[in-house]
Amino acid sequence: MIQTINLQKLFATEEVETTALNGISMDVKDGEFVAIMGPSGCGKSTLLNILGLLDNPTDGEYNFYGTAVARMTERQRAQLRKGSIGFVFQSFNLIDELTVYENVELPLLYLKTPADERKQRVEAALERMAIMHRRNHFPQQLSGGQQQRTAIARAVVAKPKLILADEPTGNLDSKNGEEVMKLLGELNDEGTTIIMVTHSPYDAGFAHRIVNLFDGKVVTENFHV
Amino acid sequence: MLRTYFLLAWRNLLANKLASLINIVGLSIAVACSITVFLTLRNFWTLDDFHANGDRIYMLEYVQKHQDETRTFGDAPALMANALAADFPQVKHTVRVERENVTVYRNESVISEMITYADANFFDVFTFPLAQGSPAALRDPSALILSHDMALKYFPDQNPIGQPFTVLTGSREQKQFVVRGVAADFPDNIGFKFALLTGYHPVHTALKNQDWSSHISAVFVELHPRANIATLARQMKPYMVRYNARNPEKPIESFVFDNLRQPAQNAYDVDRRPAEANHPLISLVFGAIALVMMAISCVNYVNISLGGVTRRLKEIGMRKVLGGTRQQLIGQFMIENLLLCAFALAFGLLITELFLIPLFNDIMTMTISLNVGQNGTLWVFLIGLLLFTAVVSGAYPALYVSAFRPTVVFAGKLKFSDRRTVARVLLVGQFALAFIAVIIGVALTHAGKQWQNIDWGYTPDNALVLRLTDSTQYTILKNELGQLPNVRAVSGAQSHVGESMNSQSVWVGGIEKQALVFDVGPDYPQTLGLQLAQGRFFDPQRRAENTQSVLVNQTFVEQHGLKQPVVGQSMRLDSQLVTVAGVVQDFKWFGSGAERPAILRPAPESRFTYLIADFEPGRGPQVATAVTRIWKAHVPTMTPSWFYQKDVFENFNTTSRKLSAGFGVLSGLALLIACMGLYGLATQHFVRRIKEVSVRKVLGATVSQVILLVNREFISLLLVAGGLANALCFTGIQLLLQQTQPFTGGLRLGLWPYLVANGVVLLTAALAVSVQSWKVATVKLAESLKNPD
Fold it and tell me: Is there a contact between A90 and B698 if contact means CB atoms under 8 Å apart?
């Protein structure tokens, strides 16, 4: 269960101060699928980074499954992040030097999962994402859709409680985009909490709830039933 | 436009302070090396070209056959000078030049100098302007002309003209000169020079009774303008015949003339050539050093520049979008480069002047200096060097960067090539050199310490040694010194432990062996404090018996396999049969503590050149004052020259310290350059991997895992370099120690210097990449993974 209270994020250079988040309070329940929408520069990605423990808020509270994390150090956040959050990015962020299989295996290596279990779980994830046949290919040899499926396989292989997706269909054509959204929907149906930033109302339609941001504030929340 | 370029270039240098600084420092070191090499090579190539008549001045040389080998010699039969002058109208002048090693006693030190005897027309032939005095001084056999350096050395604060100058010649003859002239400072490109110059006059012992078998250092011939040397050379036969009739055992094959300004091809190979000539290989080696340094620096520069380019991708893209042509971009980058290289040049000049020139002049016999003001060729070279550096180091980054396509840049799809094999090989090379330099530096320091701490075999703390200048002094001084309350014993020696000895053959049981022979007074061993291992010392009362006795050291017994009992055994030394009276424990006779078979043999007082006083502990200064006083009373014309025995190896230790310090500087430089290379490559490498690192961190990689990951390549390159260097050094040093065992003694380096040296290099390398590694490892994920909106 995720809860934020009055999150603030300021970006300050020597001369200018920019407020990216201005008092965001929101709850995300276990098993929920939340879409965050809003125009460019409204703070969507900043919010997602904080929720994903990649960044700290300047002020406010953040409760991550019962742990207050807003003042944690980078090292503590990294420890907490490991295995409990999966990330899906717009630009996939696969490692070019590693094969599909190795990319998916990476989180388990860092979790020090035993070899046989690792193999089993990687293969299961690849099967699940229908990318098993390209397991020995390098990312550059795949289509955008295949790359994003690999990225999703990598995000789920450690069985995280939460998946954060930042414009997951932004670099894909509509057919591949649809496919990726269906996969995310299925994962959510199986119980994984998903928070997704998107520009696309269609993609947002997959979510239970849409949070609209404007100038760093939550302006509206729409619920789907 | 040009003004904008310069302004932009300046701003960019300031914006990337660290990278600019590293680039400037790296290039300036290379520039400094190149300038030093240029100065050296220019001296090599223009040796002695400042003599106005240089094209008409020749050295007379001769060719001899020695066991099937033909060799050319630069010394000459003395009588050839007058013969040539008398017989050939085309000869304008001949100058005889003879040199002799003399000793100058000054305060605490004994200085070895070279005196040059030259004919009175010396200054007509050679262009050596005098700062003081007149060339006519050469007609006066008691007049001395000093070189500029000698005048500074001996008369730093006073006018040397009219000052007395005493030297002790090789035949131990004391000569009084008066300084009558001082030469102007010699140009750097001097090959034929003098320190102390006096007339070629038969009153000097070295020049007495010259005939057709007497050789002197040089005979110079100056021809009249338009006279042909080849014609002269063809008419040398009668002189050869005359010479060979007198010297049938060493006949001359031919006489040759070698020009002072344009030396013969083989000039470097001429034995005893009076003017320096350099082996062409030296030019090649020096040139190669400069080129390699420049190449390394330029490659480092290119790497660092390319690493910095990513910061400016947007700028480059925008310039192109706004209509900038590729030529304009190249122009901009080249001007930035030129500015940076100009700074490097200025810095390089500073490094040359402050570090390299003093270091070079300290190590080499040749002198170089940076007289920018009076030196046209140097200016041409510097401007050429600036352009060369700017183009070589800047062309690649400029061309590379200016070729980027804006759409690719903006889409963030630009990929940097990772195949920089040349850069990697160079990095390994640079680090191998750095490892080698540091290992040698540490080994030298270690050796110096070990040598200093070696057991002397006796206690040198209470001995004062006085150098004697003639044979009558010993008895008088000994009697007076013996009266002093603080002096326990006085003895004398012809050769003194730590200062002088002879290496001689000795026949033991009919077999020839080598040994160091010290000719000493009968009570010398006790006075110095040598320890007896067997038998007895000399008995000062039994002179007749002493002349047939010797003492040997333990190494002599061991190395020459003397059987027990050693005392009483006979051997032949200088065709005289001597008996071993006793065996002394090994004593330190050389700075490195090398052990060699040694013999102490009694010598008569009349041959003593050293007086050794053993004083009460702590009374050294009082004894020294007394020694000076007594000396002055008897030898008022000369300053006494004395030292404490504990300081006898000070020269050796100073040399060893200087060598260590020199290598310290060298290894520092090598390490600095290597680390710059590493920094450059790392900058590029890390920039390229930032995204991957971010992804890995999101997936759970720790800081240490990331640091290891991004540095893995460098670690293996460093290990290759280190492995190579350590293997090379270990074998090289081992071989060297074997070869020089008689001098380096029982020096054992062990593993310690290697461990320290490797630690230093690896630690410095780690420091060089530490800041960047840390930056990469702690990269802000929120920023690095930002979507390219």
Answer: no
